[in-house]
Protein 1
Amino acid sequence: MGRNNNNDVTKAFEQALRQPSAGHYLLRLFVTGSTPRSARAIQNIRAICEAKLHGRYELEVIDIYQNPELAKPEHIIAVPTLVKKLPLPVRRIIGDLSSTERVLVGLDIVPNQT
Amino acid sequence: MPSQGNHEITERIRELEERLAESEQTLHALRSGEIDAIVASGPEGDRIYTLKGADEAYRQIVEEMTEGALTLAPDGLILFSNERFAVLVGLPLERVIGSHFHDFIAREHADVLTALRSRVLRSGKAEVRLQSEERAPVPVYLSWKRVKQEEIECVSVIVTDLSEQKRNEEIMPPRSWRARSWSRLRKPWS
């Protein structure tokens, strides 16, 4: 019986791995204090997330002036940069995120038409 | 596949490798801090962005001051927060920036939030309770002013923790407490 239970748990776990987040998004936006493009990027990504991912996203906004150690593992070169951590694959979008279409393609919310 | 095709492919790969090497070298220079400025092309011609500006000293003051400091979008979205404000609401800084200021203000202070969003009032001050799921409510003094940063309209807010003064109020006669606390609370915009 214990063995069957283990098998069930393993199956459920494997299934969960195949659909790791069931449409849940984990996003990290890297900014520099309240510089204009960083401010715009925060406003743009919040608006896009609320419109397209309401209730199924987590957004972390990292000020690399105050938290430089959080930027290091992500190899951030330019700011602002948005990193989609989940769902996989990891994607990055550099800029103030003012092109909603480019952001939606980058986040795999709409397929790339080109 | 004909040998001519192979040759073309080899040639193309070599060309792409050269371009990739150049891009990687540029990225390496950027990442290792070998540059002072970036030149960006725009409709009005090239603009130069220096990477270390004269604003660094002011930035450090705001980041390290003992009061909470925030920059809000007109709708209350937090565009900047210093570490002190994050401590006051008991959340990591990256969960504070990008969230809404009204999430941290107790419901009974709706009038203060309305005043903060008002385009008519350029500045204001109020005593409110900061709330968060992570810790007990904190009495604070807010002082705010509407500012324009480049083309973006925003609200700068200074948040002073009143916990200690409230505790003093309980053990000291209000008269003597008031004289002390107001001298402490004098803000540049008040």
Note: Chain B touches chain A at residues 27, 30-31, 59, 63, 71, 73, 77, 79-80, 82-83, 93-95, 97-98, 149-152, 154 (CB under 8 Å).
Protein 2
Amino acid sequence: MANTLIPKDWVKNYADYLYNHAMYRTRNSALSEDLVQDTFVSAYKGKDNFKGTASEKTWLVTILKNKIIDHYRKASTRRQINISQLGDAADYFFDTATEDGTSNHRRTAGGAQMQTEGLDLTEQNELNGILLSCFDKLPEQWSEISKMKLVDDATTEEITAAFNITKSNFWVILHRAKLQLRECLQQNWVNQ
Amino acid sequence: MEQEKKMSKNIFINCEQAGLFTTINEIGELTSYQKIQLGFHNLVCKICKLWAKQSVQITLLLKKAFEGEPHKMCEKKKAELEKDIDQLTA
């Protein structure tokens, strides 16, 4: 049976959930309220696009996530740097010689720095938001595995059993997730 | 397993292996020999040494980003939103 939308119950049923989701990503109360408000307005205006295959909550969360990404995309344009200046993240792991004979390692050493220390509260909040947006972009299994291990401190045995993967696979997934997070942070976060 | 055996043959490892070893080391699952391999590699490789720092940074940032009690929207704002939706649906 297809799910239906009941806009008059949205605030009662989902306002806190969406606000909490936005707060974890933006750490900014006023911004989170605005994002939830925008989400409800956009959802109502786009209600004809709701096919009923996902739940109402999932649909609203998806809209909110897009709003958050849009927000950070706009915010990050002022500090966005050309990825070509950093080199391909994968290249950091191969000592490829360049035309001038220097290695990628030496060439990109400065650009690869992530300045995450000594930030004021606003910058820290923004960094958290960008990081969580980057986290949302990971393949679902990678993000679940990474969160279980790095945030929830689950044991490797618990995770490999839960996802039915080998220990080696788990290590590689965790490593690739972190590399992708670093690449995303380097694209979207440069401390000024 | 095959990959692990292959990686363990030589004391000198490449950057790809060193990167993976760094991630594994951070969660405390690197063998003693692999730790030595990683140590040797990081002596001569600035970027892999940097990755070791960044890997820890990413973990700390993630923990910080996810920490905290659930947040609740204030009732006043909820009432405003209720009004907005009522106006839209009217």
Note: The radius of gyration of chain A is 20 Å.
Protein 3
Amino acid sequence: MKESFRILVSRVTAFLFLLLLVSPLADAHVNKHEAAGFWSGLKHPISGLDHVIAMIAVGLWGAQLGAPAIWLLPVAFPMVMAFGGMLGLMGVRLPGVEIGIAASAILLGLAVLLELRPKLALAAILVGIFAIFHGHAHGTELPPDQSGLLYSMGFVLATGCLHAIGIAIGTIHRWNWGKAAVRTAGGAIAVIGGVFLWRALS
Amino acid sequence: MKRRSPRFRFLVFGCVLAAGFVLFPARAEAHLNSTGLGPVYDGLLHFCLSPEDLLPVLALSLYAGQRGIAYGRRLLFLLPAAWLLGGLAGLGHATNITAANAIVSVLSLLLMGGLLAAAAKLPPEWFLGIVLALGASHGYFNAAGLGKPDERGLAVLGIVTAVFIFVALSAAFAVTVRQHWARIALRVTGSWIAACGILLAGWAVRK
């Protein structure tokens, strides 16, 4: 046991030394409109828990609803969210954005918890309205002096990946234990959304 | 005095020669922004490193592949040809075209991404018009924005070559896609590209 632990420590140490050989770019002088935009865009949607849980909830709900919602939501959501982002960038005011975002987490979480199955058009409209709130919040928070297209690419890619994670988790819905796990996750998302709503109102 | 072997003398001669070379260092030319790779390769790389050109072409190629082999074949030859004609028209212009270029980029991303996302059943003549408009407009702005006036023609050839290769690869890939989930993935790609276009419109207005 002691010998194997010593071997493990020596291997980890050797690995850490090897990591020193991998020297990433310093990025000490990021020029205006340079590639910093892509990484900033990629990081932005995953930087706020309120956005992350809502995106994952969309994926979970899509997986629960099955076809065609499972593919319609990931196709429609990025475009509607980008529309909200465009409104934010243009300076169009939208009242109660933070409340809308918190409400989206609560309602989507409840939809997953209760396995609600509304008509496809109603589900798409509900998700679309929430997408506008999320997009608008992102649009108003976007930093200046970024490459617009590179930022947008990173932003859309990260949002799409969050949906994909939600859908991938939601595939466990085919088993009984998976159904219970997905519904529990929905409940947890609703509770976290409640905390965000309380913070938005206080 | 002991006589050294021919092999040893050859080694010493090689070392002396190498040391001699060290005394005459050539220019490193490490900064390609001043030297470039030559006009053709510069043009080729220009396309590969310009997402405002790359994404609409990717969307249109995937859309053509999605619609079938006939559309893919038309695109393969028509798009580079239109790009070349637009490029030749733009060779004589080097004006400030930033605003017009931004509008073309937004419209291209929106239209090509939207077509792919919707898997639209576009009539062949409409498809032809879109291909010609995309190729000619992007080719024009590419050529008008290039530096070094005497090398622009070759750079346009490099860009057109890159367009041809890229269309061939992506349209051929989309033609082979048969599984249901993979065809949905193509449509999701289109929606992401269109979303980039919508956001880019917001950025353009913000600036």
Note: The two ends of chain A are 55 Å apart (CA to CA).
